[in-house]
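Inputs:
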Amino acid sequence: MRRLMQRHETYVFLAVVALTIVVTALNPNFFTMENFLDILKSCSFLGIMAIGVLVVLISGGVDISFTAVATVGQYVMAVVITRYTGNIALAFAIAIAIGLVLGLINAALIYFFNIPTIIVSIGTLNVFYGLLIVFSGGKWIYTLPEWFRKFAETRVFTLFNSNGIPYGLSIVTLIWIFVIVLAALILRYTVLGRSLYAVGGCGFDKGPAERAGINIFRVQVFVYTFMGFTAGVAGVVQALLVQTVAPNSIVGKELNVIAAVVLGGASLAGGAGTIVGTLLGVFLLAILSNGLTLMRVPSYWYDVVIGLVILTSVSASALQQRRKGKRAIAVEDAQHG
Amino acid sequence: MGEVRNRFKWIHNEFALLSIVMVAVLVLMAVLNPVRFFRIGNLQTMAFQLPELGLLSLGMMVIMLTGGINLSIIASANLSGIIAALVLHALAPPETFAGSGLGVTLIAVVAAVAAGLVVGLANGALVAYVGVSPILATLGMMTLLGGVNIVMTKGYVISGFPSAFLFIGNGTILGVPFPLLIFAGASAVVGLIMERTPFGLEVYMLGTNETATRYSAVSVPRVLIRSYVISGVLAAVAAMVMISRFNSAKSGYGESYLLVTILAAVLGGTSVYGGFGKITGLVLALVILQMVSSGLNLLQVNAFLTQAIWGMILVAVMIGQFYRVKAAARIR
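Outputs:
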């Protein structure tokens, strides 16, 4: 119990529960299977990218270029499947391939030139996005193939609500679950995944991790190509959800995703963060936005609420960290004195 | 080795290096577009555009010197701008107000600077006392202020200011654009504070080694809070120039400046790890960036291509710095 109380995830979970109770009290429509499955579908896009961001944060980096990567992957995918035909596997393959290549560029710049990750990604965000708009002319793509629309409507299982309207677990949510499982397996059961925490825990000087026999380059390549992979998948998922491809619809959401992951307890200093926490962070923001809508709060209040939630959460975990640090020093003093 | 050191010494002199780059850019512009680039009109346009970016970059640089980053600087500027605009509209409604509005302008500027000060205090307290990392604190602040800005304006544009206020961004004194004078004054003041006062020394110390600074009996929280307050106030001054030039205020103005403020500081020799960087370097970097920007504009280059080029220059400058640090280590 004590250990549970020290975990950040516990508090996020309690916040999610509290929020659910409040929103349900105000609008009973919130606490229904249909609404939950709907939330699971609509937040899968941010949720997939959040998994990638989590991996980057664990490794001690920050990436904000992933929205541009997702946009480029999505746009090229849409151009190919509308101009020539294709199928859903090809759509994912194209977007993922682009994600991997752009992720590799980030990794190379970070590893070979030792540039801080936030600076690299601020640079590449603008390069990727700027060039995409130049080449695409900023044109929207409205008419996606019939099979693309059909795939988006696929349900894993189907239920009917009281009005007889079908709903269910969307295929899109299943893709999100697949990414979660993949990341969980890598983080928990592979040497690469474990060394990720070691590299992140080192802070800026990667010397200790290197001396422990970790190949830093391989870790960095994995981190940023995995980010690219999730961005590519998320790009297709977003296109599936809205059925329109607009080059300016994803860029600008990077902070929402980072906010969700940070709410879930991942530290910007690296070396910490769990998938459960990240998912709770995503749910917290999703329920918050869904709840605000159900409570008929004007949409322009949304950012104010999110900003306050982020500041409260990061302050709470910083204070907790500080208290832990003080306790460690006290223990040390007691031992030596 | 002495000979090698002498021959390559200029590489380590930021000012000399940047001057060479500046002359090179000037020559390039002269070759590409000789007639239009050197026309008085273009030079004046450049002199009007540089200050708002320059003031924001100064605000970014001060925080980068402490080893942090201020992602909320644009949102903070917009907050100040919107508050000034609301004050102007309350005291001097554009439909009925007739005078020049000097007094009203002063009140609006004071209100805007006060807002910048409060944002700086909040950022500083989060970083210094609560212990939140600068990226997270200013990121949260950016979201919060962005939201507040939308709530205050409901997403609309507030436009139409009295003539005294418009002078801030559009007036000239003896042919010199007033914004340029503001920028010159601000960089002189910030330069003096950073390079000639004990506080400035403490900022550089903090950016170089926080632990050593703490053990040197320097109050780290006080240094941090003052730095963020300076940054917030500079953002407010930048906002005055910006909304006066546009004759309107809105949430979301100048969002593309965030990248360029970091780029200007880095190009001017400010280390992203803190502790190094001079105001003269920043000013030269701003002149270079303004010339490139105007040059591209005259060549009618797509705005998004320009954005991509900024990104490329940022990465290129960082690669250049990497090799310079390496070369310096070898000579030593």
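Remarks. The longest helix of chain A spans residues 302-336. Chain A has one domain: 2-336.
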